[in-house]
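Many introductory courses stop at the sequence. We go one step further.
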Amino acid sequence: MSELPVVVVGAGPGGLSAAANLLERGIRPVVLEAGPRAGAAVAEWNHVRLFSQWSELVDPAARRLLEPTGWSAPRGYPTGGEWVADYLEPLSKELGEHVRYDSRVVGVARRGRDRVVDAGRDSEPLTVHVQTPQGEERITARAVIDASGTWGTPNPLGGDGLPAVGEKAAADRIAYRVPDLNEELERYAGKRIAVAGSGHSALTALVVLAELAERHPGTHVTWLLRRGAVGNVFGGGEADQLPARGALGLRAKAAAKAGAVEVVTGFRTAVVERQGEQVVLESEDGHRLEPVDEVVVLTGFRPDLSFLSEVRLELDPVLQAPVRLAPLIDPNVHSCGTVYPHGADELRHPEPGVYLVGMKSYGRAPTFLTLTGYEQVRSVVAEIAGDHESAGRVELTLPETGVCGGSGVFDAEPEASSGGCCGGLQVAELTLSAPSARSC
């Protein structure tokens, strides 16, 4: 088994980090990327600026691989496109033939055994089934590190976790990413737009669209929150230890306060009804909004576990994250952004040699930071290499959001109306402080 490679699924930040760590330990990686380039998923949100700065976006092992070539990390806060061009692509070139593109993993199994068979699971290698333009291929591996992320499987608009009635039929009016106004100005300018979601992507979209409304009269933005109260949705502001993340929330607050964004709380979409070129959204309790031209759905992501159906995973039933990691990241319990140090031990499964890392390891939980993935990968690679001491010595201190307390599923405040979080649609009138110049 020690002569076999370790297969890494995905050539994004986590996957390339894994490859760099494996090479540093003398283990041959085979990185399989479904897209045509390194960071293919990141490139799809190339216009969005990260709230982590460069020093937090470069893996230490990758840095040690790149710096002898004359590479140095830029400074500041890159966009997704800059992260790809200035880090992921140079790293993939340095990794060379270890990275393969247009290679989609469609299955992982124990050689000659389906998931029911006990015998040989500790001694037989894994087989990775790959679909390429040339046809099907199988790769025999000593271990598999799944760093494929969750970008390809966004959560739907439907408030119950499934597509709303009519959501698929209205696909031409619905987008599941932050609008790129450099490419899509005509689609959104002067239009009525509904934005669904409460995370950082939704805040980014609100800021972008509020600025669009200033330049293009007639643009109207309605923000749909499933939760029953605005609460701490804007984050910790100046208390956030990531200044850019805090500033994002403050800018979204300012947009709402200025009237550029109408906020509707307690709205969990059940129906998307076509009306010509517009759609009408209806909630679970029958409330209907005014027709809109476009809907931007930013309700988070979920892992694609379909190609792992023949390996034995131990996943939390709520988050679909590794069962030992789930209590550390469950948004029903806390939302501080503080995650206890974790690595190979929290990420292990009953299937030997199979690890989910990076965003995929978080399942449906939000607030993942790249720093977390890099430390996960370092620990996992040490475990695969047999360096159990290094694998267990996990040190990770993440910047806090400045907001604590369980967010729950609905996030209703105890003193909310008698109807609770589900007591009906409300148009929130925000009386929030505008951000200071220093924060922005």
